[in-house]
């Protein structure tokens, strides 16, 4: 997996999945090192993914490799967290939503 991820493609993937997922209960900022930020929020009962870089109720940071492993199913979010591959700051219950979008 040496090819770098494209932030626009990642944001579109989140957009496609987030619209069918349960409503977010807060804002979630996903930071992928060397790639960028995806900001997830619920506006007027619609989950939205964008590339805003603003404060969120919860922030989840990870390496590009970890994100690729999550996407491929090689690694679960809980395993990544327990192994220290995910850094979560803020409301952990909002971080749990991430599993619905990957």
Strand content: 25-35%
Low-confidence stretches: none
CATH topology: Nonspecific Lipid-transfer Protein, Chain A
Total number of strands: 5
**Rg:** 12 Å
CATH architecture annotation name: 2-Layer Sandwich
For the report, how would you describe the main beta sheet?
Answer: 5 strands, mixed
Helix and strand element order: HEEEEHHEHH
For the termini, the CA-CA separation is 17 Å
Number of helices: 5
Strand order of the largest sheet: 3-2-1-4-5
CATH superfamily: SCP2 sterol-binding domain
Anisotropy-based shape: globular
Approximately how much helix is present in the residues? 25-40%
Helix and strand arrangement:
Blueprint: H1 7-18, E1 28-32, E2 36-43, E3 46-50, E4 58-62, H2 64-72, H3 77-82, E5 86-90, H4 92-95, H5 98-101
Parallel strand pairs: 1-4
Antiparallel strand pairs: 1-2, 2-3, 4-5
What would a concise description of this structure say?
The chain is of the alpha+beta class and 102 residues long. The chain has helices spanning 7-18, 64-72, 77-82, 92-95, 98-101, and strands at 28-32, 36-43, 46-50, 58-62, 86-90.
């Amino acid at each position: 997996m040496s090819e770098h991820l494209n932030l626009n493609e990642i944001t579109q993937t989140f957009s496609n999945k987030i619209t069918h997922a349960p409503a977010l209960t807060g804002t979630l900022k996903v930071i992928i090192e060397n790639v960028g930020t995806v900001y997830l929020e619920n506006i007027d009962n619609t989950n939205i993914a964008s590339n805003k870089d603003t404060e969120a109720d919860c922030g989840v940071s990870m390496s590009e490799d970890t994100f690729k492993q999550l996407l491929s199913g090689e690694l679960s979010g809980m395993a990544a967290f327990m192994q220290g591959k995910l850094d979560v700051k803020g409301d952990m219950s909002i971080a749990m939503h991430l599993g619905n979008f990957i």
